[in-house]
Amino acid sequence: MLKLGKKVARVNSVSLKFGAFFDATALPTPPPVFGKPGLVTRWGMFANDQVSDCVFAGAANETMLWRAWGGAPIPAFTDDTVLADYADATGYRPDRPDTDQGADLQEAASYRRKTGIADGNGVRHKIDAYLALHPGNIDEIALATFMFGITGIGLQLPTSAMDEFDNAEPWSRRGLTVEGGHYVPCVGRNSAGNFLVVTWGRLQAVTPAFLLRCMDEGIAYLSFEQMGGIVNPRGFDEAQLRAALAKVTA
After folding, report:
1. Cα distances (angstroms) measured from residue 186 to each of 121, 151, 231
2. How much is the pTM?
3. Spatial separation of the C-alpha atoms in residues 126 and 245, rounded to whole Å
4. Which domains does the chain show, CATH number per domain?
5. Residue pLDDT, tens place only, 19-53
6. Of 12-21, 58-67, 211-220, which gets the smallest average pLDDT?
7. CA-CA distance, 153 to 161, in Å (whole number)?
8. Side-chain-side CA neighbours of residue 146 (13 Å)
């Protein structure tokens, strides 16, 4: 059984906005097709078929892709490591099913910045900053995903999406029944114009119209783990990113 696990979006819980910080007119226009999801040959389920830990399962998959894109070895996350951070951040207890309440996106991002998520070798991987995306702003989602390799997308997932996932079809329909909140890393866009997200251990295509209707929050992450050497995939050098981070955190 597939699980969800994103708590209800809190308006302005992330005070820093991507659109206010980055001037879209000064940045390159994303090409029709972008992203490098193929750098990860096996995405992880990380117990999201048993527990409502989609936010932390997504964090592990995001870190795997950042490391691969940066030319570093891909960390070995496991169900146990992901569940340990989920428990630490949310109060989940395996012996208390009632504590499996999912995660708040802002609180999880704060945990990732301050504490980081642990891989199987005990190494903690942190993000350096995070900014809110405007729900359903397709151009902004494309730009942020293109520039930083990954964005985190919060959805109110309809039952129809579960059926489409089972049938390996793009998420496209609104559906009449909402299963609950779900979190997916967005990692690119394909030749059909659909965004590519990671969920339940595999890639899933998502139409822009679906995002427009079902996205209720989103986050752009700045992470030095993505950088190979001193330059990230879109041309920012470390000095530029650190200067940008100084402005964000100020």
Report:
1. 26, 5, 22
2. 0.92
3. 14
4. 39-249 (3.90.70.10)
5. 887 777 877 889 999 999 999 999 999 999 999 99
6. 12-21
7. 15
8. 17
